[in-house]
Write a structure and sequence with these properties.
Strand content: 5-15%
Strand order of the largest sheet: 1-3-2
Helix content: over 70%
Order of helices and strands: HEHHEEHHHHHH
Largest sheet: 3 strands, antiparallel
Number of strands: 3
Shape: elongated
Distance between the termini: 85 Å
Radius of gyration: 37 Å
């Protein structure tokens, strides 16, 4: 009998239990749990059933869950080590510093934008040419945005400390 024929051989639950060294009740429990596939009443394909039994005896899903948890823990430990390394080299900043920097940036941008009317009022009083008005406004808005883009929180944070 060839290996392929042996794998396709149908066996009873009693024969499978004898080969695996477990009780027939255990074979039926595994079949009811969906770990073994029946091909007939209390009959199983030897190759497929034997492979499922080997996996079950080696820990089955519990072993793979445990392995997955170990891998997850290793990844978490590696991520933590990378974060500590980056922190030691000053490659990351605390969230509070980032929040302060963004807050200051928004204050600078808001201030620049709100000052536009004061800066251009004298230049556009009595102006009737719409193109000239738009040009002056566009230039002032560009200046305000450029000033915000040039803003460096490092200077502001070090001056405030």
């Amino acid at each position: 009998m060839s290996a392929e024929n042996l794998a396709m051989l149908e066996v009873t639950d009693a024969q499978l239990a004898a080969v695996a060294g477990v009780s027939t009740r255990r074979i039926r429990q595994l079949a009811e749990a969906g770990r073994l596939t029946r091909v007939g009443r209390n009959r199983y394909e030897l190759g497929e059933a034997f492979a499922a039994l080997v996996e079950e005896m080696s820990g089955g899903d519990k072993a793979s869950e445990l392995t997955a948890e170990r891998v997850r823990k290793l990844r978490a430990d590696a991520n933590l080590a990378e974060l500590e390394y980056a922190r030691a080299r000053d490659l990351v900043a605390p969230l509070s510093e980032c929040e302060k920097a963004w807050e200051q940036f928004c204050v600078v941008l808001r201030s620049n934008m709100l000052n536009i009317p004061n800066r251009i009022a004298g230049a556009i009083v009595g102006e009737t040419d719409e193109r000239r008005l738009k040009k002056v406004l566009r230039e002032e808005i560009s200046l305000a945005l450029q000033a915000a883009a040039d803003y460096t929180p490092e200077k502001e944070l070090s001056e405030n400390e």
